Amino acid sequence: MSAVEQHIPNDQFLQKLTAFYRDSKIRGPKSVYVTMKPYDGRTKAMPKGSTFKEGDEISCIFRAKWGSKKIATEVKAKEVNKFHTQYSAIIVAQMVNLEKRKKTDDEKKKTGATKA
Question: Between vectors from CA 88 to CA 23 and to CA 100, what angle results, nearest 5°?
Answer without folding.
Answer: 55
